[in-house]
Amino acid sequence: MVVRVPPPSAQPRSRLRVLLASGAAALALAAGSVVPGMPLGAAPQQAQAADSGDKTLTVAVAQGIDSLSPFLAQKLLSTSVSRLMYDFLTNYDAKDNHAIPGLATKWEPSADKLTWTYTIRTDSKWSDGQQATAEDAAWTFNKIMDDEAAAQANGSFVTNFKKVTAPSPTKLVIELKEPQATMAALDVPIVPKHMWDKVGDFGKFNNDEDFPVVGNGPFILTDYKVDQYVKLKANKDFWRGAPKFDEVVFKTYKDQDAAVAALRKGEVSFVAGSPALTPAQANSLKGDKNIKVNEGPGRRFFALAVNPGAQTKDRKKFGDGNKALLDQKVRQALFLSIDRKTIIDKVFQGHAVEGKGYIPPRFPEYAWEPSASQTLAYDPDKAGQLLDEAGYKLKGDKRVGKDGKPLDLRILCHATDPNDKAVAKYLKEWWGDLGVGLKVDCLDDVSVPWFAGEYDLAFDGWSVNPDPDFVLGIHTCAALPVKAKQSAATDDFICDETYDGLYKKQLAEYDPAKRADVVGQMQSWLYDSGYMNVIAYPNAVEAYRTDQIKSITTMPEAAGNIYGQDGYWSWWSAVPASGSGDSDSSGSGSSTGVIIGIVVAVVVLAGGGFLISRRRRTTADDRE
C-alpha cells in the first residue's frame, strides 16, 4: 500500500511501498469516456471512435502518478507506465516468468560470474528515429550509480556494480564487485541518452514537460494530467510488434464505485480496483452482459508495517514514532491480537489467502511459513502477557507505561482502499480490548507522513516479483533515506547487520535451492522481529468489457492478473472486440488472445530461481 505499489512489484504499501499491484492498490476525471479523436468528456459506449476508426483501451485505476521519471517512479501505476514507455534489458515470459530477451537478445557471464556481457538488439529505435544502443543502457546504469538523485527508484540494482561500459553499439558489459544472481532480472527502464543527458536535477525532473516523450517501448506517452489521466499511443515500430489498440488511457477514479459504474456504462474498458475490486463489486458485475470478471492468485501481500524509529543512512533520527514500538515484545503483542481468519472471512470474504511469510504462495520457490512453535497466532492472552513484561500494565481499561502515559498508537490508512478501513475497525476493537488505543489516519497520500516518519504503524503492501530481491532489499540499511523526510526505498527504516548479511548472501547465491533457503531465513527474521506483519495475500480481482476487449493475456497465463504485470503483455496483447487484428503476434514471449475466465485456484508457477523478474513494491496507494 503506499502501494507503499511498486513495486513493483515493485510501491510503502507503494507505501506503494505496494506493488501488487499490495497494489495493491486515482486518476479522477470528470464523467465521460475517453476515446481517440474525442475530448475526454465525451461518453460513447464503444472503444472505437466513429470518425477516425482508432481504438482506445481505457483503464480505470485508483491511484495517481508519483513521477513519470523512471529514476523516481515507485507507485505501481507509475512503474507500469514506465514498462510501456521503455524497454528493459530482459523481460519475463507470461507463462512461467522465465527470462526472455528484451533490449538485450542474449546475456552471458564470465567463468567467475563477475563480468556479464549483453548483446543489444539492432532493431530497436527510439520514437524520434534514433537507434537504441548499448551506450543508452550504459549511460542509464552509470547515471544511477553516480547520481544519488537518480538512484531513488532503482538504486538497489546497481549497488554491486563495479563498472558499466559499451564497447560497441551492440555490446554492453557490466562488471560486478561480487557475483550477483539477479543479472537477468534487472528491472531498470533503459532511457535515451541523447534526451536524458540534458536533465539537470534528477531529483526534481518528472519527465512530464514535453510530449510526446521519446521512448522505445510498445507505447509512447503523449499526454498527462495530474490525478486525471495518462495517455499513451501505440508504437507502430516496436520491435516485438505493434499493439492492437491505438491508444491506452489510464484514468483515475478515487471513488472505486464510480469506476465500476463507468465500466458498466461502457465509459471505461477495464477496472483494476484499489488495488482489487471488493467482493461486493465483483459479484455485482458477474451477471452483467459484456463484462468479464477475472480473478487469480495475487502477487501482493496486505500487511502492517511498524515505524521502529525513522533514521537516515548516517543514523540521524527523525520523526515522532511511538518509542513503545522499539520493543519487540510490544510489536509481537500487537500482532498476536490480530485474528487473520476473521479478516479473510469478513473483509476479503474468501478472496484472499491467510498471510504467513513475506513472499506470497504464488511464488512457491520462495514462499515460507513459520514453524508451529514460531507462529504468532491469534492469542490475546499471550499478547497481554507480553505487554505486561514490556512494562505496559493495565490501569482500568488502558495500558500505561512506566512514564504514566497510556499506550496510544496511530496507523496510516489509504483513503481509497476499503480494505484498510475495514481492517482498521477490527484493529481498534481488538487492540482496544487489549488496552491499546488506536487512531486511524486515512489519507489520500500517505507518503508525506510516511517519509517524514510521523506515524506509528501503516497498512502496507507490495506487488512481489518472481525474483524477491527488490522487496527483500527495502529492509536493508542501503534503503534508508540520505536525508530526513526524503523519498527512499525503505519500508520501515530497518537497519540490521544480521538481515543485511543474509541479503548479501542470497544476492550472490546462484544455486536456486540454496538461495531459496537464505531467502527463507530472511523471512523468518522479519517475522520474528515484528517489524512486518503479513495479514493476507489478496487475490487479483478485476473486470473488463468483452464488447471492447476481445482477448487479453494474464500473467501467468493459466490464472493470473491483468493489471500490474511483470511486463507489458496485457496491454500490448489486448485485441479490440470490434477490430480485425491477428491475435497471435510473432515474436512474443507469451501467447496472446486468451479469453479469461474467473480463476480462484492458486497456481504453482513453473521455472523460477534467479533468472526471473522482480517487481516493485506496491500498496493500495501503491508505492510500489
UniProtKB/TrEMBL annotation:
Which keywords, in A-to-Z order, does the entry hold? Membrane, Signal, Transmembrane, Transmembrane helix, Transport
Q: Where are the transmembrane segments?
A: 593-613
Q: Signal peptide position in this chain?
A: 1-30
- Tell me the superkingdom of the source: Bacteria
Per the database record, which ranges form the Solute-binding protein family domain? 100-472
Q: Which CDD domains match?
A: PBP2_NikA_DppA_OppA_like
Q: Where in the cell is it found?
A: Cell envelope
Q: Please name the InterPro entries in this protein's record.
A: Peptide/Ni-bd (IPR030678), SBP_5 (IPR039424), SBP_5_dom (IPR000914), TAT_signal (IPR006311)
- Which family is annotated? Belongs to the bacterial solute-binding protein 5 family.
The protein, known as: ABC transporter substrate-binding protein
Taxonomy of the source species = Bacteria, Bacillati, Actinomycetota, Actinomycetes, Kitasatosporales
